Amino acid sequence: MISTRERILDAAEKMFADQGYSATSVRKIISKARVNLAAVHYHFHSKEELLEAVILRRAIPANQERLELLDACEAAAPGGNPGLEEILRAFLAPSLRVVRDPALGGVVFMRLIARLQAEGDLWQKTVGGHFLPLLDRYGSALRRALPELSQEELFWRVHFAIGATTQALRGTETLELFSGGLCRPTDPNLILDRLIGFVSAGMRAPVAVHSLSGGTK
Amino acid sequence: MISTRERILDAAEKMFADQGYSATSVRKIISKARVNLAAVHYHFHSKEELLEAVILRRAIPANQERLELLDACEAAAPGGNPGLEEILRAFLAPSLRVVRDPALGGVVFMRLIARLQAEGDLWQKTVGGHFLPLLDRYGSALRRALPELSQEELFWRVHFAIGATTQALRGTETLELFSGGLCRPTDPNLILDRLIGFVSAGMRAPVAVHSLSGGTK
DNA sequence: GTCTATAACTTGATAGAC
DNA sequence: GTCTATCAAGTTATAGAC
């Protein structure tokens, strides 16, 4: 039998992902989790801390693994400089495991992350900080893999890449809809391959020479 | 003096963008707009219809312009087949105008769009349908610009591109934060140039040969 | 650790005077 | 078209029994 605490986390994760944080009341959560209202406040003190717990349960081990995978692939690479695709794969492999395994949250968790990321404020309050150390390590690996890019240019491309990744991992309902059912949720491995193809090409794009006075048509 | 109706729309747009739809109560909106509570229900019937009105006010003219720009660039292109960058630019030019002009909603409106897009359910209920006709026209233009891609592959790449675009137009707070202030909100034209560079390279990426049994590392 | 009961407040929406 | 007054329901959170 799963503990009360876990049942609350599971229900909250699903409902925050499906309906958003503020649209999900603690009462809806407890009714789904079949627990008592006071149990939530006993275990998590407040709704906001509950959200934080929901995310950290998954994000802490995944980020730990991301660091280890980067270490491993730097150790294996010639000169300690792995290629762009390898770096992207090290970062995304834990996400892929999460998506594949419902016990790790599955797509539900990725949808929640996507949602929070779009909200900005909540993201920073809850988990933003837990991703900053990652950024350091991965940032410097990327700089060595793409030495022709200025620091600024690199940041912009990482920014775009985060957008594409979020979209890819969020789930495919929108895509299924607008592709008329042609694109269906196939093997997540395949999605990852496509994503890495897209992102690595984008990050290697020739540096644009920007017109001095703004777009000349 | 701006009409009551417009004042409500302006306040609602800003607050929905900043705090999300369900975290924004009608009462917070009326206090910002300095109007009466009943005025909202008089003009818009319900909170949900208010959201719809907020979006359609901007989206209808912008989408109209997107169609006209595509017509124009197809008429000008040799064989009626404009290149990838031209198509992307036609689609994004109206977004750029919105971002540049606070009177058209500015970044605020784009932030709202990004948020709704991440929410999925609300998106489809409110505006999803208004983008479908666009998809048809732009989809076929893209197919002609990238004939080497299968229909399915193309849809996936459009999906990723939407993610990158959403991220780019949402505003640069996150980017500023994690770049340590190096990337600041410069000329939106420049952002657009970078985005188009990234996305067009991603869409032209070589088609990956996927391993038959899943990732072989 | 789990429960009931309840406090204290906010929510979207409407009726009806002007 | 604009207002006040009010409804019925739902909100987070806590006190205190077991």
Give the topology, please.
The structure is a homodimer of 217-residue chains.
Chain A: H1 4-19, H2 26-33, H3 37-44, H4 47-76, H5 84-100, H6 106-119, H7 121-145, H8 151-169, H9 173-178, H10 188-203
Helix pairs in contact in A: 1-2, 1-4, 1-6, 3-4, 4-5, 4-7, 5-6, 5-10, 8-10
Chain B binds a DNA duplex (18 and 18 nucleotides) through α3.
Report on the structure:
The structure is a homodimer of 217-residue chains. Chain A is an all-alpha fold. Chain A has a domain at 59-204: Orthogonal Bundle (Tetracycline Repressor, domain 2), CATH 1.10.357.10. Helices cover 73% and strands 0% of the residues of chain A. The first copy, chain A, has ten helices and no strands. Chain A has helices spanning 4-19, 26-33, 37-44, 47-76, 84-100, 106-119, 121-145, 151-169, 173-178, 188-203. The first copy, chain A, is globular. In chain A, 41% of the residues are buried. The model of chain A is unreliable at 213-217 (pLDDT under 50). The interface between A and B is large, with 68 and 67 residues. The structure holds a DNA duplex (18 and 18 nucleotides).
